Each structure stands twice: as structure tokens, then as C-alpha cells.
Amino acid sequence: MENYLLFIITALLIIIVPGPDFALVTKNTINYGKEGGFKTVAGIVTALFIHTLLATCGLSALIMKSAVLFSILKLIGAIYLIYLAIHSFRSALKRQHSQLVKEEWTHQRKTKPKNFKEGFLTNIFNPKVAVFFLSFLPQFISKGEHHFLQFLALGVIFIALSVIWYFFYISLIKRLHAFMQTEKVSKAMEVITGTVLLGFGIRMVLEKQ
Questions:
Q1: Which of 106, 137, 162, 198 could form a disulfide bond with 85, CB atoms 3.0-4.6 angstroms apart?
Q2: Residue 208: count of CB within 10 angstroms of its CB
Q3: 70/19 Cα distance (integer angstroms)
Q4: Segment holding 180, helix H or strand E
Q5: Could you read off the pLDDT of 40-51 as tens digits, one per residue?
Q6: Do the Cβ atoms of 197 and 23 come closer than 8 Å?
Q7: Which residues of 102-114 are buried (b: 16+ CB within 10 A; e: fewer)?
């Protein structure tokens, strides 16, 4: 029981630290409303659940031991983050945000599915997520008990905590909706999002196995 309490506290501290997921959820909630934010979170947690299953079955360890597979995974993830960063910079520079939001809501059926894809691809191709599950979760597994079930349970708890945090964060953004939708703030958020994603993308490229 003590292990689980320590795990929950540590996991929450890790989850609330801003990163690519935080930037994506912020951007998509501002641009597409709650639904856009929730779909981004759905993509994120789907990828996290897959990583949990891979780590639980030992497949993630095999991938991490292969220099070729690790490099391919890292390169795909980095390219996608840089692509999202460029898209954010273009959104900030190309046109006024008020016009952008109007056009995006007009074509919401075509654009909103991208929210899930962005959250999913950002995590599924991020080798750091796989490394995290392989290095973090085992620290809280009790000896003498079924390791497979413990590993899976800890992964599910981490995902559940992520969902709770992001739902709370999305609700907070919606409360500040009027302020966040102003042209200066929205453009600034696009630039900040792009900078964060670009930084993580470049760092992923330079990261060694």
C-alpha cells in the first residue's frame, strides 16, 4: 500500500510538469474547445496504454536494446514534433487568430480528428515514454508478488492520473476562455507551443540510446 501511495504522489509530480503533451492539450483546447482538448488527451492515453502493455510484456525492453529500432523510433518522433512546431509557427504568423478560429470551427469535422492523432503520435513514437515506463514503474513493484499484474496496475493508475489532471486543466482553460481567445494571447500561445515542441524535437534528435 505504501508503494502505491508513493507512486501516486511521484506520478502526479511528473504528470503536471509541462512537456509536449501539455503544449498540445493547451493549443487544441484553445483552438477547438473542450472537445479538441479531450480528443488530444484520448490520443495521449491510448498511446500510454500501448506503451504500458509493451513494457509489461517485455517488448519495450527489446526495442530499447536495438540501436536501429531505437534510432528509427526516435527519428520519427522528433520529425513529428518538429512538424507540429512548424505548424504552430505558421498558424501564428500566417493570419489573424480570430480568422483562424472561425475557419477551423467551420471545418471542425475535418480538423478535429487530428487532435486525437496528434496526441497519439506524439507519444507512441517517443522512445522516452518507453524508457520512462521501463525505468519508473519497476521501482514500485513489491517483491514476492505477481510482477506482471503489478506492472499493469501501475501503468493503468498512471494513465488514470493523467486523465484526471488533463480534464482538470482543460476545465481551467475553458474558464479563461475569453482571455485565451484574444488575438495577442492566442498568437503568443501558438508561438510558445511551437517553441516547446521544437525544443523537445531537437532534443530527441540529439539524444543517445
A1: 198
A2: 7
A3: 21
A4: helix 177-180
A5: 999 999 999 999
A6: yes
A7: eebeeeeeebbeb
For residue 115, how many other CB atoms are within 10 A of its CB? 25
Q: What are the two backbone dihedrals, phi and then psi, of residue 126, each rounded to the nearest 5 degrees?
A: -100, 105
Q: What are the cell numbers at 89?
A: 509557427
In the chain, the amino acid numbered 173 is: I
**Stated pTM of the model:** 0.78
**What distance in Å separates the CA atoms of residue 5 and residue 154, rounded to the nearest whole number?**
11
CB of 52 within 8 A of CB of 156?
A: yes
CA distances to 4, 12, 98 from 154, rounded to whole Å, are 8, 13, 43
Q: Which among 135, 169, 126 is positioned nearest to 154, based on CA atoms?
A: 135
Distance CA 174, CA 108 (A): 18
Q: 49 near 57, Cβ under 8 Å?
A: no
**In sequence order, what DSSP letters do the residues of 9-61 get, joined into one string?**
HHHHHHHHS--HHHHHHHHHHHHHHHHHHHHHHHHHHHHHHHHHHHHHHTHHH
Best CA proximity match to 77, nearest among 38, 41, 31, 130: 130
